Amino acid sequence: MALPMLRGCYRFPSTLSFTRLFSNERIILNWSGKTRSPPSSPAGAAAAVRPYSSERGRKKQTHKIVMVGIPNPFIWFRTRIYYFLIRTYFDKEFSIEEFAEGSKQAFSHVSRLLSQSQFEALEGLVAKDLIGKLEEKCNLLPLSYKQALSADPEEIMYTTPGDVGIYYDDNGRKFVSILMRFWYLTSAHLPDDTMEGTRIFQVAIGEEVETKRLLTANYEFQREFTKGVTPDWTITRIEHSKLLD
Predict the structure, then answer these.
(1) Residues ≥6 apart with Cβ < 8 Å to 111
(2) Around Cβ 88, how many Cβ atoms within 10 Å?
(3) What residues make up the domain containing 123?
(4) Would you place residue 172 in the very low, low, confident or very high pLDDT band (cuts 50, 70, 90)?
(5) Is residue 50 one of the residues assigned to a domain?
(6) I need a surface site. Which of 46, 172, 199, 239 has the fewest CB within 10 A?
(7) pLDDT at residue 193, rounded to an integer
């Protein structure tokens, strides 16, 4: 059944503590954590910096990887209208900053399960019809590709919201979907011929230099806001560029 839809999209960095996102049967995954991010501006560039450090004798070396995003002023303003609508008509406590931080933790958790082929553990977190498709695709991946799916929390360099959708169906059910984009580092050995366009970094760890590749992933989260429905966010779309499209 076709659903009426409102959509918007934007880019800007945001991070905050997060304490609720998914529930799986009686198990509720709670995350908390605080990170720092530069102030976002509708006209200016925003950068997320992640330092890497290593000790060589008494000398400490620090390496920084910088991700820069330049938001579109019109889209930046338009999406704030969507967030206002969500807070006004769906959830007065909704915060895109808290959601972004929680989605980052969910991304790390789900990507690790995918990497380990633990598809049964995805139930309650990922849409049922999507789990079967993911299992088929992952079973065809070589081991190195599966390893590259996993995103360690410390290796996630940048997180930003993408598209935002508000849906209504003919029965009065209400839905909100938010697409999140992630950039993360992996040390998995991937063939260069299939990873064209990805960035490679040399990271010093002690006296050794490790090669890491910067990959991207898109995860879409959806929640039904109909009265009486359990307030859970479910992942309805998973894409790992160059790995799982």
Answers:
(1) 149, 150, 151, 217, 240
(2) 10
(3) 73-240
(4) confident
(5) no
(6) 172
(7) 65
